[in-house]
Write a structure and sequence with these properties.
The protein is α+β, with helices and mostly antiparallel strands and about 575 residues long. The protein contains 19 helices and 20 strands.
């Protein structure tokens, strides 16, 4: 049954003539975008008889107010309220809440717009699961960047840890939850007022769901804010406002690993004001803000949370907790790109080159360490078998530290391995914070028939791998290609059962392998089984896997019976 067919059903708990969802839109000077926003709400597949659109004009001066009045005159479901400018979206959202009559409430910013089936899918999820909050998949437009973690998959009952990264208010809320909790937006805040509102409802909700298989919300990036900010917020006041979220979390969740996982988000928020803007403040103001942050970090941060922070955050957190104002100023003022592009390598560990590494300030090495961030990035651009030689070229780099590339041929599925050095190729330098500035291009020509000082490769499959970096930090990974990438190279997807020629081929998992010439019987049983499975359809492969699992269970049961009989 399609979503459009479900529209004729009357949801439980609603009566004819009463909207099931109230859409609240705070408006201030967004005339170029407002029409698209309103039209997207009125075009919802849920139907105009099941929604009401409450638009609250916050003292607009650009024609937005007149545009709203025109929509209200043409559509019975549109209600418009005009308010003097409040300086933030908190006040107009509260006005909308006070006039909402729907079973659910959905907030939309006036410069954004909705997918046509957004409200229908969100309400349907809430009705089927008894959800108090439903998150709809969001995408950014015009350069807007949004967290993607909450929308990896549709969830009927999401864990709070799955959605806590998204504290914006652009969601579907059960109105009875809002009234039961008694929460409203902070009307004095000049920004971030939705974080405390959403966090309190998250922590009080019984069921939270996620709709990730449909784009419900399109969020626009604009240099100016959606609602005018007429007040300049003191950084210390901002810290105290963000600390309210940490306090709220502590009130609703007992100490432990789960709370720390959520609290880490608030710790990162508390660290955000300590940037170059903070460095530009007067010394006495800089000290005052530092002291406020120091007290908050000392209260809410702990060793488990500290271990999860990135190096830059970990350094700032440590300086705040231990009162290292001068060190904090040096670290914040140091170019982060330089710290990561020119790291310090000490044996098998790598450290960002921030100031005060192993000096008298006593900052732990763990705050500088980026070893866990070192990863291999490689790709194969060309591969060719010619005259008994394997010619390879591509790009490979070890993030932050670079290193020479080695081609590894490893007998598959297990056995000996051969290592071959490569020649570096000159390429344009790559740039970007936390990626290093590496060339990374390589070429390799491997003699497969008459190699020096070693026997020729034995017949059978050899996996092609890349190893990059110095011996103490080397990372190694098999070369993998998609079907489209392998189609551009002389690489076959599957080998004929009786194939006896030397070939490059792509396995079922995308790994590139070299098949050395020899008797076809040299193919391993595992390789034959995988090749056969690759030729099967999806359902046939599923039946094969089921049969293998069933056989394993049967074998285990027999072994247990024999063991029991022997006892």
């Amino acid at each position: 049954m399609t979503l459009r067919n479900r529209r004729s059903r009357e949801p439980a708990g609603t009566s004819h003539g009463q909207p099931i969802v109230s859409v609240i839109v705070p408006v201030y000077n967004v005339e170029p975008y407002l029409r698209e926003c309103l039209d997207s709400v009125l075009a919802q597949s849920i139907g105009l008889d099941r929604l009401e659109l409450i638009a609250v004009d916050d003292g607009s001066t650009d024609g937005s107010a007149e545009l709203l009045d025109g929509y209200a005159g043409r559509h019975r479901c549109v209600r418009v309220f005009h308010e003097p400018n409040s300086g933030g979206p908190g006040r107009p959202r509260n006005v909308g809440l006070n006039h909402a009559s729907g079973k659910y409430v959905f907030f939309v910013d006036a410069d954004d717009y909705l997918g046509q089936e957004a409200l229908e899918r969100l309400v349907d999820m809430a009705e089927r699961n008894g959800s108090d909050i439903v998150l709809g998949k969001m995408v950014g437009i015009a350069g807007r960047r949004l967290p993607t973690k909450p929308f990896r998959r549709t969830l009927r009952r999401a864990d709070l840890r799955d959605v806590y990264h998204s504290l914006n208010v652009l969601k579907l809320f059960r109105r009875s939850l809002i009234e039961r909790v008694g929460t409203r937006f902070d009307e004095l805040a000049s920004g971030g007022e939705d974080g405390l509102f959403t966090a309190e409802l998250y922590l009080s909700a019984n069921v939270i769901s996620v709709v990730a298989d449909y784009t419900c919300y399109y969020c626009r990036h604009r240099p100016d804010s959606q609602t005018k900010r007429v007040r300049t917020e003191d950084p210390a006041d901002r810290l105290m406002r963000m600390a309210q979220r940490a306090q709220l979390l502590a009130q609703h969740r007992p100490p432990g690993r789960k709370r720390d996982h959520l609290m880490a988000r608030h710790i990162r928020d508390l660290l955000r004001p300590f940037n170059r803007g903070w460095l530009g403040m007067a010394p006495e103001d800089r000290r005052r803000v530092f002291d406020v942050g120091s007290g908050l970090l000392d209260r809410w941060n702990n060793a488990r949370i500290q271990a999860t922070l990135s190096p830059f955050n970990a350094l700032r957190a440590y300086c705040l907790q231990h009162g290292l104002l001068t060190a904090m100023e040096d670290i914040v003022g140091f170019p982060a790109q330089l710290a990561f592009r020119q790291p310090i390598v000490d044996g098998s560990r790598v450290f960002a080159r921030f100031p005060h590494f192993r000096d008298t300030h006593g900052i732990p090495d763990s705050c500088f360490e980026i070893t866990r961030m070192i990863s291999l990035h490689g790709r194969l651009d060309a591969a060719e078998l010619t005259g008994g030689r394997l010619v390879l070229s591509g790009k490979a780099r070890l993030s932050h530290i670079g290193g020479d590339t080695t081609v590894v041929l490893k007998r598959w599925p297990r056995g000996e391995e051969r290592r071959y050095p490569t020649t570096a190729r000159t390429t344009p330098r790559t740039h970007g914070a936390h990626t290093g500035s590496l060339k990374g291009a390589f070429e390799a020509e491997i003699d497969l028939v008459t190699p020096r000082d070693r026997a020729p490769l034995s017949a059978g499959p050899w996996e092609i791998r890349l190893a990059v970096g110095p011996p103490t930090l080397q990372r190694e990974s098999p070369v993998k290609l998609t079907k489209r990438e392998s189609a551009a190279l002389p690489i076959v997807f599957d080998l004929p059962r009786r194939d006896t020629e030397t070939r490059l081929y792509r396995s079922t998992d995308g790994t590139v392998r070299l098949r050395m010439a020899g008797d076809a019987s040299a193919r391993s049983g595992l390789e034959l089984a995988l090749a056969a499975a690759a030729r099967l359809g999806r359902h046939a492969r599923r039946r094969v896997r089921h049969g293998v699992k069933k056989g394993r269970r049967s074998l285990k049961a027999r072994c247990r019976a024999v063991h029991h009989h022997q006892q």
